[in-house]
Every structure is written in C-alpha cells, then in structure tokens.
Amino acid sequence: MARGARSVAMPGTARPFTLTGLGAVAFIFMVTLVVATLESLLGIGLRTLTLIALAGSTLLAGLWVRRSDIATIVVAPPLVYALVAALEIVLAPTLKFTPTVLASLLVRGFPAMSIATAIGLLVFGYRTARHR
Fold this sequence. Notes:
Structural class: mainly alpha
Low-confidence stretches: 5-10
Number of helices: 5
Radius of gyration: 18 Å
Strand content: under 5%
Order of helices and strands: HHHHH
Largest sheet: none
C-alpha cells in the first residue's frame, strides 16, 4: 500500500465498537455497581443478580475490548467485585466497614468472582485463538 493511502475496511469486518482496557474495567464496574446497588436496596445483598451482572458485563467487555488489552478482562472481575463490595459496605446504613465484614462479603462472592473470571479466560482464549 502506498504511503499515506487509507485502507478501506470491508463491510462487516470492522469492529463497530471497541473499548480500551480501562474502559472495559469501568464498564464492568458500572454495570456491577448498579445491579449490586439495586440488589442491596431490595434487601437481598450481593447475590444472583450481581453474579449475572458481573459475568455478563465481563463477557461483553471481553468481546468489545481491544485485542491488546484483552488480558485486563481476566484479572478485572475479582478486583471489581471487591471494590463493589467495599462500596456497598460503606453505603449501607446498617453495616460498619471492618475487615471481617469485607471478608464475609468476599467469601460469599467467591462463586461470582470465579465464574466471571472463567468467562474472562474463555473470551481471552477464544479471541487469542481466533487471531492466530
């Protein structure tokens, strides 16, 4: 291709929407925080809806993130869940932020974190294999 020439993408081959690694983590965080807040307001705590939000947003972010930033999707779910749990403790009027309360939420949230991390690994493997 000549210098300065533009490449024209074929219809259907260009990705219409991409996220940076930080944008993908922010997307996962915002979706999970909104759903976790709704669940907390309902009095349920961080349960099934938060799991679905964390896993679903990890899947979408993994599909939308730039290929060079795909590894952030694998490490993001536990960190996002821990931050959401910490914020939920701070915002809850009946809970006091102590290491014991945070540890309790993290232990109960382990299945959510592991499922979302497994989804991140699957998306990472799929996108890595597809690129080769």
